[in-house]
Specification:
291 residues, mainly alpha, Arc Repressor Mutant, subunit A, two-stranded antiparallel sheet
């Protein structure tokens, strides 16, 4: 495998090639510095970006640990305990180096629950922070699919309102609505729907209709197909078929007082009207002395 990296310095010729080249001896530069003696890798090698190897903010331990982690095969254990057993730096320094790598995007660590209820830490090594490969995404927990929100419940049509919503009238109206399911099981209503429809039934009862007549008007000639919204159908009938108010009837005049026959007062002897014999009103208030 031959990967060219234009940002990396050009490899120098090996010292062995320099020494063996005819008419060319070992030459020293005029100033001190690094001299590369490179050999081409054909197996067991890892490509490391200079952004990690020459990172300006990572510690030397974090850079070395990052290089080591990128060189490991898939499935290798890179938890603090395993790394502390491999290197002499100790768990505290290794934990700090892992946090550095995580801060700068070279590691992603997530805690997941596996079958059986056990919690494990999944570590993803990123050789180029900010780039997510499909293979890495395969190991990341997939986001939950968005839940489809139920459509908002359509409001029921308005119903007539009674002029005087007496408690007894509303109770009778509720009993009419609750009893509709005995005539047609499709007219089973929820408590919310019954509460909405009750004033409409009360307005019908207020117009001199009996509960039986109201029940018949709401349950007769229903469609044969399933009723998707029975409460909406009942609300429409209550509003569209509301009967007219009863004709005006003037209040009946009060009954005349009965005319009693004349009686003779047993006290003063004066006549007065009374259903029975006895004393007149004057003698009742001031009865005569006994003779």
């Amino acid at each position: 495998m031959d990967t060219r990296n234009p940002s990396a310095p050009a490899p120098a010729r090996s010292g062995l090639a320099e020494n063996n080249h005819p008419n060319r001896g070992h030459r020293h530069s005029g100033h001190g510095g690094l001299v590369h003696e490179n050999a081409r890798h054909t197996e067991r090698f890892t490509v490391i970006g200079n952004h990690l190897a020459q990172h300006e903010e990572l510690s030397l331990l974090a850079i070395g640990l990052g290089v080591h982690i990128q060189s490991l095969p898939k499935g290798a254990r890179v938890d603090i305990k395993s790394l502390a057993a491999r290197f002499p730096e100790g768990a505290t320094r290794i934990a700090a180096a892992l946090r550095e790598l995580e801060t700068h995007g070279y590691l992603r660590r997530t805690r997941e629950r596996v079958p059986g209820g056990r919690i494990v830490t999944r570590t993803v090594s990123c050789n180029r922070p900010g780039h997510r490969s499909p293979a890495a995404d395969d190991h990341s927990p997939s986001p939950p699919p968005p839940r489809k929100r139920p459509a908002p419940r359509k409001a029921l049509p308005a119903v007539p309102q009674p002029s005087s919503p007496a408690p007894a009238l509303l109770q009778t109206a509720t009993e009419v609505l609750v009893g509709l399911r005995r005539h047609d099981p499709r007219l089973l209503l929820s408590a919310t729907d019954a509460e909405h429809l009750t004033p409409g039934v009360a307005a019908w009862l207020e117009r001199d209709l009996t509960p039986t007549a109201v029940r018949h008007a709401l349950t007769s000639d229903l469609p044969a197909e399933p009723l998707r919204r029975p409460a909406a159908l009942l609300a429409h009938r209550l509003a569209a078929q509301l009967p007219p108010p009863p004709p005006f009837r003037p209040p009946a005049p009060p009954a005349p007082e009965p005319r009693h026959p004349l009686r003779c007062c047993q006290g003063c002897g004066c006549p007065f009207r009374s259903p029975d014999y006895g004393y007149c009103p004057a003698c009742q208030s001031d009865p005569p002395e006994a003779a």
